[in-house]
Design a protein that fits this description.
It contains 13 helices and 18 strands. The chain is α/β, with parallel strands linked by helices. It has a domain at 248-488: 3-Layer(aba) Sandwich (Rossmann fold). Strand 13 (393-397), helix 12 and strand 14 (417-421) form a beta-alpha-beta unit. The termini are far apart. One of its GO terms (molecular function) is mRNA binding. Keywords: Cytoplasm. Belongs to the EDC3 family.
């Protein structure tokens, strides 16, 4: 049994289990163990693994002679005569293939254990269902063996399959190595989607169509193409560029502001001119209380956006429902306090928890119902800074540039966003209070300080007639919105 160690064998198994090939490392009476295993011509993933085959599973054992490719090449160079090829196809060099070699039905060979050289660096040829004899690509008589694939030798010595001597059998030669299965198990799955996305099929089809039909006009090419669909608000025909008309003053403005609309300029006006426009509207029935309602509506919309919008007001956020503090430095019946109280009332109607800081003591005989309307929402107000609680947003509705230290300390300790409703042009405690957003009515005022933050202009709904009476050629600038951002023109 020891004489068989190191021999290369081809073992055919029963029950269509296939053919195993390898080198014998442990021959026994009931089994045989081989390594460097090929199964049906395909190398196993674990090439160094040992495969043990039981005797009752073996149908046939064939010893295989593996010839050294270097030695065979040298012998073929010395012994092969130079012949002239008669067929153009036969003169072409054959390209090597990566697939396993063909099967064999050759009878067992007799070996001399001292002369045999075993090679494990290449697959071992196995049996073929179609080829009658074993063929090695490195055998010295490769030409004679190749003729066995092309046809059977007839009595006349011709190598054709039908025996008629016309030599057509050589033309039907096929490479049986290509018929063997390849091992793709060590490769990843091919990503068809990403590969298909890289292929611009539409442009290539257009190029092919243009090359095949160069004389066909464009109109004919587009007959079979589907028509494009347009939105209900999309223009089908191209039109000239349209833009808003600019507001014109009788004098040159100190500053000009732009909006998100291209080409639209909004000039700044002095405080006296803005007061005149508001008084003209109030004298014709558009009272100051109604103007305050519109201004508070714009401030409420901006505050809701700063608080987080619809996501913050979702029932899922009941554990962090928004809280707002509004600070008014005037008595409740003054103009700025009425703006703050009206904004607080509208925020409370959206479900926001609001706390208002406002003074109730006043010497102004003016009557105001804003405080009463606000308290009807169920929210509270206070005149003591110590009663103010932490919040998510602070809204300033003040007329004085300098606030007391307690208000400033409360704002600094909260570290939240600060919003202002029509503040003084120089801001509120510049350097101490950082205003992020400001809401202003009608038109921006001259020399608004940068400490007021980002400006937002509110549409109060004042008619063009009152602007014209004040000396301003006014055109509607808000479009579909009631609150537009302003950017200082450089």
């Amino acid at each position: 049994m020891a004489n068989y160690v190191g021999k290369d064998v081809s073992i055919k198994l029963k029950r269509d289990l296939g053919i195993f090939q390898g080198k014998i490392i442990k021959p026994e009476v009931d089994s045989i163990t081989i390594n460097n295993v090929f199964h049906n011509g395909v190398k196993l993933k674990k090439f160094e693994a040992h495969v043990t085959i039981a005797r009752e599973e073996i149908e046939n054992i064939t010893f295989i002679q593996v010839v050294d490719p270097v030695e065979a090449a040298n012998r073929s160079v010395r012994n092969t005569p130079v012949t002239q090829n008669t067929s153009p196809k036969e003169s072409e060099p054959q390209k090597p293939t990566k697939s396993p070699p063909s099967f064999t039905n050759k009878k067992p060979n007799q070996y001399d254990g001292n002369k045999q050289q075993h090679k494990t660096t290449r697959p071992i040829p196995i049996k073929s269902r179609n080829t009658p004899n074993y063929i090695s690509s490195s055998a010295p008589h490769s030409k004679a063996l190749e003729s066995q694939l092309n046809g059977k030798r007839n009595g006349n010595g011709n190598l054709n399959g039908n025996g008629n001597g016309n030599g057509n059998g050589n033309k039907r030669h096929r490479n049986y190595d290509l018929m063997q299965p390849d091992d793709f198990s060590d490769q990843g799955d091919f990503d068809f989607e990403s590969n298909n996305a890289m292929f611009d099929k539409k442009s290539i089809f257009q190029e092919i169509e243009a090359e095949t039909n160069p004389d066909k006009p464009d109109l004919v090419r587009q007959i079979g193409k589907p028509e494009e669909k347009y939105r209900h608000d999309q223009n089908i025909l191209d039109s000239m560029f349209m833009q808003f008309k600019n507001i014109q003053l009788e004098f040159k403005p100190k500053q000009e502001y732009t909006t998100d609309e291209p080409g639209l300029l909004i000039p700044s006006i002095p405080q006296s001119l803005r007061n005149r426009i508001q008084n003209l509207a109030a004298s014709h029935g558009y009272s100051m209380e109604r103007q305050i309602d519109f201004l508070a509506r714009g401030a409420t919309e901006l505050a809701i956006q700063l608080l987080g919008g619809s996501r913050r007001f979702s029932p899922k956020n009941l554990h962090q429902w928004p809280r707002v503090t509004i600070i008014c430095d005037e008595p409740y019946n003054m103009l700025k306090s009425e703006m703050g109280l009206c904004t607080a009332r509208q925020l409370a109607c959206h479900g926001v928890n609001v706390m208002v800081f406002v003074k109730t003591a006043t010497t102004n005989p003016k009557e105001s119902k804003e405080l009463e309307l606000y308290t009807a929402t169920g929210n509270d107000f206070t005149g003591n800074v110590k009663d103010l609680t932490p919040c998510d947003l602070i809204i300033l509705s003040v007329s004085n540039m300098n606030q007391n230290s307690q208000i400033v300390r409360y704002i600094q300790q909260n570290r939240v966003m600060v919003m202002a409703i029509d503040p003084p042009v120089m801001g509120v405690n510049p350097g101490e209070i950082n205003i992020r957003n400001t809401v202003i009515p009608i038109l921006p005022l001259d020399d608004i300080h940068t400490s007021c933050g980002k400006l937002h202009l509110v549409n109060l709904g004042i008619s063009n007639k009152f602007f014209k009476d004040a000396g301003i050629k006014y055109f509607p600038i808000f479009g579909s919105r009631s609150l537009i951002p302003l950017h200082l023109k450089a």
